[in-house]
Backbone:
């Protein structure tokens, strides 16, 4: 997806997750912030968020937000893996 400032420059897909989370939360989410923030944009934060769901007493609203953030992150990671396989198939085919 192109950036608003320069349509010829693509945005980092994980930055798009952060932007979406900002819309959902109503506040800015910066890269490298505490993984408790609902914008899961890296594997370590995803693992931490999943562990929170397993081992901490999390209220239903927060649980839903974490679940939705994990699903968005996993969807993007899965898409990336599919794109890698497609590129490999084109390279050897």
Residues:
């Amino acid at each position: 997806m192109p950036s608003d400032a320069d349509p010829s420059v693509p945005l980092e897909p994980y930055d798009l997750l952060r932007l979406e989370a900002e819309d959902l939360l109503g506040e800015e989410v910066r890269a490298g912030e505490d993984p408790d923030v609902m914008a899961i944009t890296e594997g370590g934060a995803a693992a931490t968020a999943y562990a929170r769901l397993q081992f901490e007493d999390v209220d239903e609203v927060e649980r839903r937000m974490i679940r939705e953030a994990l699903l968005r992150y996993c969807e993007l990671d899965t898409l990336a893996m599919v794109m890698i396989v497609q590129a490999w198939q084109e390279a050897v085919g």
Observations:
- Helices lie at 13-25, 43-55, 60-92.
